[in-house]
Amino acid sequence: MLAPLLNRSKFALALVVSTGLSAGMMSAQAQVKVPDLLSYSGNIQQAVSQPASVVPTQPIVGQGTEWEDTFDEGVSSLEQIDFVAPIISKQTTQYMIDAILDYERIALNGGWPEVSTKKVLRIGMRAPAIAALRQRLIVSGDMAQQAGVSEVFDSYVDSAVRRFQLRHGLTPDGVVGRATVIAMNVPVEVRLQQLRTNLERVSALAENVTDTYVNVNIPAARIEVVENGRVRSRHTAVVGKQDRQSPILSSAIYEVNFNPYWTVPVSIIRKDLIPKMQKDPQYLAKNNIHIYDWYGKEKQWQEIDWTTDEATQYRFTQDPGEGNSMGSIRINFNNTHQVYLHDTPEQSLFGEGYRFHSSGCVRVQNVRELVTWLLGSTTPDWTRSRVDAAINSGERTDVKMKSRVPLHMSYVTAWALSDGMVHFRDDIYDKDGLYAASADPMAQASAQ
User: What is the torsion angle, in degrees rounded to the nearest 10, for the CA atoms of residue 187, residue 198, residue 339 and residue 363?
Assistant: First the structure.
């Protein structure tokens, strides 16, 4: 299915090259040396220590590479970003093919320069590294060529850096720190490989999505609520750690639990509860967790040998209320992994740039808005005030939805939208095949 589109892309690239490059340049660039993809060891997400990016209420990015020369006005001058196009759609497939064409052209022209700096760069500074920074931003289309190359970090650079950061899931603060430098120094060939790999993923998903669905993009730690083909809302998420990955699946949401009990999965009993009980025998009592056998009889913690895996033979249930790991809401969908979407008492996690902390479930910021839409669109008489009242009651309430809403937990690390912006995220679970085991950036970053 993709072959005709990709062939068109290659043909268009040939036209661009034949009309835009001289014969001498073509001969010099005909055989581009592609860097060893396995040698790249930058890890973007783990380098982020700032709060996660927040979708701005005012537009802060431009329409692809079609820039107007108004950068001296700073961020407020930048044009509207495409806020309503979902990542998964048939239109996205064509946008990604266009992006591949652009990145192939960049590769043929030698890629972008490396940004090397030992100090943080920000507006108002002057440094030799800023000249390479400006050139890097021009090559990727984040800054207009007429802005020029100098050693000054002016408002042109500030706006361009914010645009770059937004495209890479970084805090759009205009400050060039370690995370931004790592993202900028990923070779164009790596980005091309990401785009090609994700084109297949997005194309396959686009064939199966309906006009209305919920998509959890795991590498972006973001949730899109899509209604009638347009994004209705986006939610920051916390997803699975590298060693406790959130599963990639397609299912359907069928139920919402208010003030739920939490039944602890066996994997968490083994990896978390047993070690915590070994350190503090009062851990279960402090967290309102009860132990039951599979006949419903409650057990005492003293009856279990915590030096073994005996505890995995029992059911551990946490009471509803403050401190419950589910928070006040759990959203159920069919799956064999014992995972769900849910609220969390640890709201501070949503403010982190690196949001891979869970044991596979997905924690949802502003979950009440999501639940209000889920129930309001499928089950009559559920409003935001009724959702709030159900939570405030403190009572366990299970609401079966009249109609199920499709849910996709996807793994998309690169995509493009109608505004020309090309987005990338870190390959947190190493599914893009960019790294060898010996050059795993996760391990290298954690060792630093």
Answer: 60
Residue 160: band (very low, low, confident or very high) from pLDDT cuts 50, 70, 90: very high
Q: Which of 209, 197, 195, 259 is nearest to 391 (CA)?
A: 259
CA 324 remoteness from chain centre: 25
Contact predicate 148/155, CB 8 Å: no
Amino acid at 178: R
Which residue in the block uniquely carries the two structure tokens 């209305």?
212
**Would you state the structure tokens that stand for residue 162, as one six-digit string?**
């914010």
Per residue in 222-257, pLDDT (tens digit) is 999 999 999 999 999 988 888 889 999 999 999 999
Which of 423, 429, 81, 59 is CA-nearest to residue 240? Answer: 429
Q: How far is CA 384 from CA 80, 166, 249, 328, in A?
A: 30, 31, 29, 14
Cα–Cα distance between 11 and 17 in angstroms, integer? 10
Asked if pLDDT for residue 357 goes beyond 80, the answer is no
Q: Which two tokens stand for residue 88?
A: 């998964």
Residue 350, SS3 per DSSP: helix
Provide the annotated active-site residues. Answer: 342, 361
Measured CA to CA in angstroms, residue 362 lies from 122, 217, 221 at distances of 35, 11, 9
E strand residue ranges, 18-79: none
pLDDT over 80 (residue 346) = no
Structure tokens belonging to residue 304: 């279990």
* Mean pLDDT, rounded, of the chain: 80
Under DSSP, is residue 107 helix (H, G, I), strand (E, B) or coil?
helix
Report whether 192 contacts 104 (CB < 8 A). yes
pLDDT(15) > 70? no
pLDDT band at 296 (very low <50, low <70, confident <90, very high): confident
Of 66, 61, 67, nearest to 162 (Cα)? 61
Helix, strand, coil content of the chain in percent (nearest 5): 40, 20, 45
Tokens 């790999």 locate to: 197
Q: Is the pLDDT of residue 83 over 70?
A: yes
The residues facing 352 across adjacent strands are 51
> What is the full DSSP assignment across 373-426?
HHHHHHSTT--HHHHHHHHHH---EEEEEEEEEEEEEE--SEEE-TTS-EEE--
